[in-house]
Amino acid sequence: MIDALWWFISNLALAFYNFGYAITHPQLWLNWSDSQAIMRFVYFGASAELFFVLLVAVIIMTVIGMVRNEIMWGYVRFFEKIGNGIGRIVAWAGLLMIIQQIIIVFMQRIFTRPDIVLGFGVPMQFDISWYAEELKLYNALIICLCVSYAFIQGSHVRVDLLYGPAKFRTKKIIDMVGAVIFMVPFAVLTWMYGWFFLWRHLIVPNPSASDTLERLLTKARALRWNVETFGFSPSGFNGYFLFKILLCAFCIMILMQALVVFYRSYLELREGPQSEGKYLDKDTLGDGEEAYEGTH
Prior knowledge:
- By secondary structure, the chain is mainly α.
- Helices cover 66% and strands 4% of the residues.
- The chain is built from twelve helices and four strands, in the order H-H-H-H-H-H-E-E-H-H-H-E-H-E-H-H.
- It has helices at residues 2-24, 27-30, 35-44, 48-67, 69-90, 93-109, 128-145, 147-153, 168-199, 213-219, 241-271, 289-293; strands at 115-118, 124-127, 203-204, 224-225.
- The strands form two sheets. The protein has a two-stranded antiparallel sheet. Strands 3-4 form a two-stranded antiparallel ribbon.
- Helix 8 runs parallel beside helix 11 (241-271) and helix 9 (168-199) packs antiparallel against helix 11.
- The protein is flat.
- 19% of the residues are buried.
């Protein structure tokens, strides 16, 4: 217990040094012409050092926001603007998915074509099965990048048997505890394994979550790029490494939304029921709040 506490405190203290060293020596991890720099980037991308740097940053932000609530509201508005902006753009992938599916059906059933040629000047010709499997990418884009947007808009699924009838104060406490106990650990654990899962499909020798920095630097001697370009079928979609990138992006969106949930719940708890929904940018299907409420 004492050893674990000392490890935690020492890593918190070292976070300032690690952050300073990283930004003053960017060539050690951003100079990707050097194979060792790539391996350092891979290692530190899911390392305890990065975790404690981010933890210290969040602690400092939170303390400042608790002293000056208007600053914390600024955090909320900034992160919610990012979540809404990304979600509103990526949501159009749903329309693209429908249009592409219609084109696939027409090309297969009516024109009996085995492929689709797209492009202006530089044509792109892929088999029908390539486009059919690519539909999974649109679905993954929506799931991974619209998660914050759905949370902000209140479109996520939640069980309200206990939460629904709870008092205002109880709800805010539940939201704060849920953000810290459930959202953050889930996103952190997913990132830790998703990060190395991504890089195992981009470079060889394959990095592992259990590798030390010294072992990765040793592997760097034989490092070469080996981006995954195979599909589940001979002529199927061959960009499955994009799904690994989206998994990491999903974790970032979850962590960002966890901060928003905690900060908004804290501010609404402190300022009272009249502040609920303050600065919340919700979409509507018509003019005025009545149109939005009429859909629920």
